[in-house]
Amino acid sequence: MNERVGSGVQTVIVTADESGMRVDRFFEARFPGLSFSHIQRIIRKGEVRVNGKRAQPKARLEAGQKVRIPPLKLDAPKPRVVTEDDKTRAFLKSITLHEDDDVMVLNKPMGLAVQGGSGTTRHLDGLLEVLRQPGRDGQRPRLVHRLDKDTAGCLLVAKTRFAAAALGKTFRSRSARKIYWALVVGVPKPKQGRISTFLAKEEREDDSFMRIAKHGEEGASHAVTYYAMVETAGQKLTWVSLKPVTGRTHQLRAHMSHIGHPIIGDPKYFLKENWELPGGLQNKLHLFARRIAVPHPRGGSIDVTAPLPPHMLQSWNLLGFDAKRYDPIESAPEEE
Predict the structure, then answer these.
(1) CA 164, CA 141: separation in Å to the nearest integer?
(2) CA distance 288 to 242
């Protein structure tokens, strides 16, 4: 407990918790504003008495003893400087949905890149560096999957090498369940379906995108997505729940565009001519990683849900959608 420091002499009783403490450490604990050199000086000068006798700095105290405290001169506490690393730690804490010794699930904001690329200086992988464990074997959290820069929501991060290896295996074996929500143009028919195509990367000037490719084409990867309609706003817009079985770049965005129902606010795959955004909706990508469920590396499971990002919450409110509504895709099959 910290004592109030007055200008006069005080006498304090040693508590049971303080029994066995050295005299100098006792002063340090009771008066955190005192410099250690000042403590040593007043003890050396004989100003400190224990049960009426001069005390030595290294003498051990016993519960119940009376300690004479001379007038003390407190150092003004130094103001703590808030560093960029402190701000980064606070930001990461503010977006953490789940954390234990092995894993974290972050609610990645829209617009924050997961990894560095050309011209990207601020990205999550870099920010995680501030959480590196001190010591020679300093481990730092590692990404085990990715989200597009403009896709918000659940991002799973491994805090240890053990967890990174186990979760890497989980993602490769496709036993991670990921559910995304999106707002798309029109009303998909049927209401629930399976999209299966091959996707290949195509470079265009200083940009790249995923195009539908043929089986066997060089660089083409098989991609499978399940979708289910949750609710519609007339015939113009639909809230869909999406479940990617594979994890290809831009898979959900390319697939929804492919079936003629591109995602609202998608600058790459929204190809509808003369389509006007309904008033009040923001022209930002309306896709987010709603939920992730994976086996925990040490047993049991992790099942985390993220709240709607602000721009999508605004759209849901404008369209009268209820985010608590039952999600029809949760029992969709897992196989390709």
Answers:
(1) 9
(2) 10
148 as an active site residue: the answer is: yes
Calculate the CA 322 to chain-centre distance. 25
Angstrom distance (rounded) from CA 312 to CA 63: 62
Q: Which of 101, 137, 148, 150 is catalytic?
A: 148
Whole-number Å distance between alpha carbons of 85 and 123 = 14
CA 318, CA 281: separation in Å to the nearest integer? 8
CA atoms of 120 and 126, how far apart (whole Å): 11
Contact (CB, 8 A) for 50 and 22:
no
Q: If we measure between CA atoms, which residue out of 306, 329, 273, 289 comes closest to residue 182?
A: 289
Domains in the chain: ranges and CATH: 10-69 (3.10.290.10), 84-172 (3.30.2350.10), 177-331 (3.30.2350.10)
**Pairing between β-strand 287-295 and β-strand 152-158 as defined by DSSP bridges:** parallel
| Of 258, 280, 141, 281, residue with least CA distance to 210 | 258
Nearest by Cα to 234 from 275, 186, 198: 186
What is residue 266's predicted lDDT score, i.e. its pLDDT? 94
Q: What is the DSSP annotation of 306-335?
A: PPPPHHHHHHHHHHT--TTS--GGGG----
Q: Which amino acid is at 191?
A: K
Q: What mean pLDDT is predicted for residues 141-150?
A: 92
d(CA 285, CA 267): 8
- The answer to whether the beta carbons of residues 102 and 162 sit under 8 Å apart is yes
Model confidence at 110: pLDDT above 90: yes
Distances (CA, A) of 154 to 31, 151, 240, 265: 46, 10, 17, 20
Tokens linked to 325? 């509504």
Average pLDDT over residues 36-42: 86
Residue 143 has pLDDT above 90, yes or no: yes
Q: At what angle do helices 36-44 and 23-30 cross, to 10 degrees?
A: 130
The residues, ordered by sequence, that sit 6+ positions from 215 with a Cβ below 8 Å of its Cβ are 198, 222
